[in-house]
Design goal:
707 residues; alpha/beta; eight-stranded mixed β-sheet; seven-stranded mixed β-sheet; 27 helices; 43% helix; globular; tRNA-binding; acyltransferase; transferase
Length: 707
């Protein structure tokens, strides 16, 4: 280890600290060269009292971490060494945001990445070579005489309230205080790229509230892991200097701020004046929905880029819930950088390398002037403008699009990227994965539960969950993503793209088109219209969306329609059981849309006695409770009538009600088996008598569509 290299690191750290920026350091060469560099970095950190994280494989006898990178969100390091043979793109992007001003992200490319790089690494290497502010060393870290540095003068003073570093951060602090002190049921959503000071803003606001509240004031803070709120607690302590932090609670007199893991928070339901949720996008959406319903004063804060799912997509998805439950919610986005300067070299490199700042073009389409193209991976790798267009559409439309998707697009030989183009503009994108036709040894590993095969999601799912013994013998094209430019949606472009993909699939001898997604009524409707049928509805909710995953298939050849019918029949049969048990929390709109796609051949028969029971009920000769089973069955055969329901109102002795909303109340009662008490609370009714009156009027309105 060279002492001069350590001196060089010390000078560069001081230089970058004064400039309020970070740098990417790339060290290539043999393993010994990289090991010596890491030893020098480790010695520098120990000597200077700096924090360091080694990610990936161990090197130079140093302990490494390669588990869930999301556990590092909210932490801060002076140096992160990235030594990952597989190059986990999501981890690289996320960890770059944990580095303090004055720090380094050190990438140690493996021997394979240096000598035989794939298209993703080739492109990354070009980004490194083209960036003059990346510190690239092919043999060793330099000594102290290698670079002349012009040190700037330090200026860290702040004249803003709360010692806020920017106007953005001050606005965020005031917005948080308004949630705590203003009207209830007006949650706040804070979004920002890393380094904008959102966690600090949460901490300052929390510290101010417990310091100045004259009445007992309790704050709960929640995050994916305890380590994520380290910055938050430090900021709260700096604002309320006489407070005491013990375990997970910061106390000041009768006031406190306590950290709760999400599961404990929902289980214990502590009585608090304010709930703060940091790194919200890393918490399953359905759990966030429950928080909104449980707490009247709540702030959600999340990072826009850097881990599973872009923040833009998260905000879009979560906004739908907030608009429904708390239409007066507020949103605030922090633009100004704090933890590092505007134009920070490491942030700029990361955004460019992973196309995180790509934005959609504003396109307008004259009719009939678009075509579908299958893009070449080399073309995508080398044409930055084309790659940015493709990724921008995926990021805007899919909340789970992440840097790893970029790697998949460029390196996975089974991945195909289809686009709809108008001249040079991309209007829609679909990512298709070719699956099936596995060899005997691979199939054996799956059968023995020894291995999860790559590029075999659908056949593995059908084999394990649907008992399709020959699943691997078929050829599938799985539509992993399909997205349309925001201002070109609802014009049939997505359906056009899917039809052209089906044409290509037929030419390539594909047996089935398939898709799997977090099921919502709108998305399911799109796939139903395209001729896909449900073959399974998962038992567990998708962690990112909070919705159940659905698997839908479409047979390309009539030779396989019998298998598809069998799978669909199984799915329909199990669906009715799931509705009243494991899936009783499903949205009625989704249940309705799923049933609309069921083949009438597979619906349970409506017997004469059932028709008689419903007829007697509608004519006033029977009670709802006496006819419950027949109503449940009768509703299953009324989907075509229900699809024609308009936004008209129905009249009862208690007043007027919107028909579609009343219909979904009917489904909650007879399909999802919700209690009368929950239905009365949801519909804001006065009691059982008013509920029954509304249910009966809705049944009569539905029956009138059939007469």
């Amino acid at each position: 280890m060279s002492e001069k290299s350590v001196t060089w690191l010390e000078r560069w750290h001081h230089f970058l600290k004064l400039k309020n920026e970070r740098r990417l350091v790339v060290v290539t060469g043999e393993s010994k060269t990289q090991s010596d560099a890491v030893q020098a970095i480790s010695h520098f950190c120990q000597h200077q009292g700096k924090s360091m994280l080694l990610w990936g494989s161990a090197i130079a006898d140093l302990k490494s971490i390669n588990l869930n990178f999301r556990h590092q969100l909210g932490r801060e390091y002076d140096v992160v060494v990235f030594n990952d043979e597989q190059f986990h793109a999501d981890a690289f992007a996320a960890l770059s945001g944990t580095i303090k001003a004055g720090g380094f992200l050190v990438w140690l490319p493996s021997e394979t990445q240096q000598k035989s790089p794939d298209l993703f690494i080739q492109r990354l290497n070009r980004q490194v070579s083209a960036d003059a502010e990346v510190l690239y060393f092919a043999k060793k870290l330099p000594d102290s005489e290698s670079h002349e540095l012009n040190f700037p003068t330090e200026n860290t003073s702040s004249t803003l309230d709360f010692n806020a570093r920017t106007q953005d951060q001050l606005a965020a602090i005031n917005a948080i205080l308004k949630v705590a002190q203003g009207r209830a049921h007006r949650p706040l959503v804070l979004t920002a790229d890393r380094g904008r000071g959102k966690s600090t803003a949460l901490g300052i606001a929390a510290g101010h509230l417990i310091k100045h509240s004259t009445e007992p004031f309790k704050i709960a803070v929640c995050a994916p892991v305890r380590e994520s709120v380290a910055v938050f607690f430090n900021s709260a302590i700096n604002e309320c200097t006489d407070s005491e932090l013990k375990n997970n609670t910061l106390s000041f007199g009768d006031n406190s701020v306590e950290f709760f893991p999400i599961d404990k928070l929902l289980h214990e339901q502590p009585d608090v004046n304010l709930l703060l949720v940091d790194e919200a996008a890393a918490i399953p959406l359905y759990l966030l929905n429950r928080l909104v319903q449980s707490y009247p004063r709540i702030v959600f804060s999340t990072t826009q880029h850097g881990y599973e799912g872009a923040g833009r997509g998260f905000a879009t998805k979560f906004r739908k819930t907030l608009e429904k439950l708390t239409p007066n919610y507020r949103k605030l986005h922090l633009e100004q950088a704090i933890r590092w300067r505007e134009g920070d070299p490491l942030e700029r490199f990361t955004f460019s390398a992973f196309v995180l700042n790509a934005s959609e073009r504003d396109v307008r389409l004259p009719k009939g002037q678009f075509h579908v193209h299958l893009l070449n991976k080399n073309e995508l790798s080398e044409d930055e403008g084309l790659l940015e267009q493709v990724f921008a559409i995926l990021v805007s439309s899919h909340y789970q699009t992440s840097p790893s998707d970029l790697k998949l697009i460029l390196t996975n030989p089974q991945a195909k990227v289809f686009v709809v183009k108008q001249e040079m503009a991309i209007l829609a994108v679909s990512l298709v994965i070719e699956e099936g036709l596995a060899n005997d040894s691979e199939i054996s590993l799956v059968q023995q539960h020894k291995r999860q095969l790559k590029n075999q999601f659908i056949p593995q799912y059908l084999y394990r969950h649907c008992a399709v013994e020959r699943a691997f013998e078929y050829k599938f094209w799985r539509v992993s993503r399909i997205a349309v430019c925001q201002n070109m949606q609802s014009q049939g472009i997505g359906s056009y793209l899917l039809n052209r993909i089906e044409d290509k699939a037929k030419q390539h001898g594909v047996d089935f088109l398939a898709t799997s997604f977090a099921a919502s009524a709108l998305v399911v409707s799109f796939w139903h219209k395209a001729g896909f049928v449900m073959t399974d509805l998962g038992l567990n909710k998708d962690k990112a969306s909070g919705e159940y995953s659905a698997v839908l298939l479409k047979a390309i050849s009539n030779n396989h329609s019998e298998l598809l019918d069998s799978l669909h029949f199984q799915a329909v049969r199990s669906f009715w059981y799931k509705l009243s048990t494991t899936h009783s929390d499903i949205e009625p709109e989704l249940a309705f849309e799923l049933v609309c796609g069921f083949s009438e051949r597979f619906l349970p028969a409506l017997e004469l006695i059932d028709e008689t029971n419903v007829a007697r009920l509608l004519s006033g000769q029977a009670q709802l409770a006496q006819s419950a089973f027949s109503i449940q069955l009768w509703l299953k055969h009324q989907m075509k009538n229900a699809q024609t329901l308009s936004a008209q109102t129905i009249k009862t002795e208690f007043g007027l009600y919107q028909l579609p909303q009343a219909f979904y109340l009917l489904l909650r009662k007879y399909w999802l088996c919700h209690s009368d008490a929950s239905l009365i609370q949801e519909a804001k009714l006065t009691g059982v008598k008013q509920l029954n009156s509304l249910l009966l009027a809705t049944l009569q309105a539905l029956d009138s569509k059939n007469t």
